[in-house]
């Protein structure tokens, strides 16, 4: 009888479940209906943020779900720890990972990355004459790139939240953050002065996984595409 070699992995990669990384926090509730339409039913506590579990089986033994911080979805997928994921275009723009392919716009988590300041700019204020500006943001790369394109050097104050406090407390002249309704800016005495980019959530895929497991990964992309088509037909 053939004995398994100690060098043979217990679960060959192509038999291991595909891992779908989902963002905890505000998009998770919008992701639920998309999963439903794609026929994916994770263990019920995946949406319970009080649950300490991070990896969840689904109704399909070929798919497990992990729940991670929104910025980390891109990291898990870029490194192939998860083969597919759902994350905001803001996160993709910030990291610009070559390993990530984003085939589908899921149309959820709709907002924009914008610049906001304490007072509206005078119409004749010539920002082209700025050479440097201090910017509070959790998107240092997006902010730096945006201002660099205008010949302005952005000095970044990297915050993970509550950016809106920065201008009034003298931490930065302006902020780069997500805006949806504008109510957070308004409540903190800021006005949106420029939209850098619109944002929605995307289905993302690890490029190597798509090459090495084209059938499995391609089938999941097709399931999400069909779910979107169904939404469009509603
Ligand atoms: N106001 C908003 N409206 C719509 N979508 C948003 C809004 N804010 C964030 N998003 C989307 O949801 C994603 C996650 O945002 P969320 O605010 O939950 O993350 P976070 O607070 O940065 O997470 P963390 O817990 O890691 O700090 C963002 O990357 C973006 O794509
Ligand atoms: O324009 P609005 O509708 O007010 O939305 C914008 C707010 O939403 C996001 O924060 P979130 O509420 O996700 O909390 P966070 O600061 O913890 O990320 C973002 O960072 C803004 O603060």
User: How much of the residues is beta strand, in percent?
Assistant: 25-35%
CATH superfamily of the largest domain: Periplasmic binding protein-like II
Q: What is the end-to-end distance? A: 57 Å
Low-confidence stretches: none
Strand order of the largest sheet: 2-3-1-4-11-5
Number of domains: 2
Q: Topology, pairings included?
A:
Layout: E1 18-23, H1 28-37, E2 55-57, E3 63-68, H2 70-78, E4 84-88, H3 89-95, E5 100-105, E6 111-117, E7 132-137, H4 140-149, E8 153-158, E9 174-179, H5 183-187, E10 191-199, E11 201-206, H6 207-212, H7 214-232
Parallel strand pairs: 1-3, 1-4, 7-8, 7-9
Antiparallel strand pairs: 2-3, 4-11, 5-11, 6-9, 6-10
Helix pairs in contact: 1-7
The structure holds adenosine-5'-triphosphate (ATP) and 1-O-pyrophosphono-5-O-phosphono-alpha-D-ribofuranose (PRP).
Adenosine-5'-triphosphate (ATP) is lined by residues 23, 25-27, 69-71, 88, 90-91, 109-111, 160, 178, 180, 199, 201.
